[in-house]
Fold this sequence. Notes:
The complex is a heterodimer of chains A (327) and B (191).
Chain A: H1 12-21, E1 32-37, H2 42-55, E2 59-66, H3 75-84, E3 88-93, E4 101-108, E5 111-120, E6 143-147, H4 158-170, E7 177-179, E8 185-191, E9 203-213, E10 222-227, E11 232-240, H5 244-250, E12 265-267, E13 273-275, H6 301-315, H7 319-326
Parallel strand pairs in A: 1-2, 1-3, 6-8
Antiparallel strand pairs in A: 3-4, 4-5, 5-11, 8-9, 9-10, 9-11, 12-13
Chain B: E1 2-3, E2 17-19, E3 24-27, H1 39-61, E4 64-66, E5 72-75, H2 97-105, E6 116-119, E7 124-127, H3 167-178, H4 185-190
Antiparallel strand pairs in B: 2-3, 4-5, 6-7
Amino acid sequence: MLPIREIKPKNARTKRFLDNKGPQITENPRTTLFLRYTTCSDILQLVLADLYALKRPLAVKFSKKNNIHPFEDPSSLEFFSEKNDASQMVFASHSKKRPHSLTFVRFFGFKVLDMIEMSVETETMRTLAQFKNAKAAVGLKPLLSFSGSAFESPTANAYTLAKSIFLDLFKGPDVQNIDVEGLQYMIHFSVDEDDSEEVKPMIHMRCYLIKTKKNPNSTTPRVEVEEMGPRIDFKMGRIKEAEPDMLKEATRKPKGQEPRTKKNVETDIIGDKVGRIHLGKQDLSELQTRKMKGLKRSRDVADDEEAFAGAEDEVVFDPAKRSKVEV
Amino acid sequence: MAATMEDAPKVQAQPYTFDLGHLLVTDTNPLPTLTTTNKEAVLAATAQACAQGLINQLLTACPIIRSSDGDLQIKLPDPTFQLPREKPVPKEKEKSKWEKFAAKKGIKAKRNEGKLVFDEAKGDWVPRYGYKGKKGDGDDWLVEVADEKPEKQERAGGKPEKGGRGAPAEAVKNRSGSRSGTGNVMKRKAR
């Protein structure tokens, strides 16, 4: 497919639009595009609708059929990405060979960065609507949790990639502050233990509403969870890891963004902020002490001062001088 | 279905790790084996433990502020789990010829000196130039005319006129035209 031709802005509105779409130091939150293959099972369509409901408003869902095979030729997906300024994609396809498969794609500069394919377990799938309870408000930032040792593998594998992609997909916009009332739901991913070699462990995705109750014994509340759906179990399929060059470029941090180190301000073990202040050398001769008759300067000041200076010479102990003598 | 504290796994081999910027908790403890009967209960229990841990961490480790409209807000730290960027880091703008030269010579941008300067003779602040300005010093209102008439009469104390007309302007034009990418291309073609 032809690349989209480069547009030169002719007015300020177009320029603003293009600047917003172009590379930025602090980036906009990712937009996710939901697409389907020419064949897509009912279950997958329900899954797609539910994931879209969780992702709103940072998502676009298309309903037309697309004859695209992401692992064979992703060029059409790249076109969609550029056209919609979407750097994430969820592609649903169903075929005899790969039934009920969802492909999560992440883009870097409108080119495919990495992909992961997972197939949905049909028996255990439950939709958002099947749980008859109140749902979390639209567009809230969810709490995220990953349970299981496979997500924390020291070497990059399918599960660490899945963690990165799921985190990127559901984390929502980066914010400085979050409303306490906004902590309404949690998306929990857990992975089975790797027991047998043939079957790869499954990933379970569960969404829970969070209910906080006052805890009489402590200052923090007691948390209870109530499932709100969707409930999806994923079987691991094919993956496409990021090319090292592209990943290096994608993980580069812009210059001059790191915060200045605050000097002389530390936090100690208890969590208290401790500051260090440097003062100039204190001139003790100017020190105002308690005034007493006995400490008053006598009339023969000159004599007194001479005596004092002489005494000082004797008392002074200079470690630097002494070390010189030793050498 | 509500999970309670009783369902939560009692023994925690490894502590949770948190990334509060993403509201993320990672629990590296292996998941108990799931059977068809206890699967949802076990998952809900692990999720409940994670949620409890994360909320406790949020309420204890982050400063809580009351916003202007009276809502309690938690101030989140910066996220630590690095996710790939969406688009490349913007390229730095190329330096112009003057900026390169200035950097080489160590020329700093001129600071704004201000409009007023202190006139010591008057003992007051006066404008740098212009009406009642320091530069002109319009005190010498009477000027003697020289004997032989020069080409152009000059006021004593005035600024000497800058170089003649014609040639220098042409030189400047040539100089700017020879630099690639600058100057008016159409004019250069016409010449």
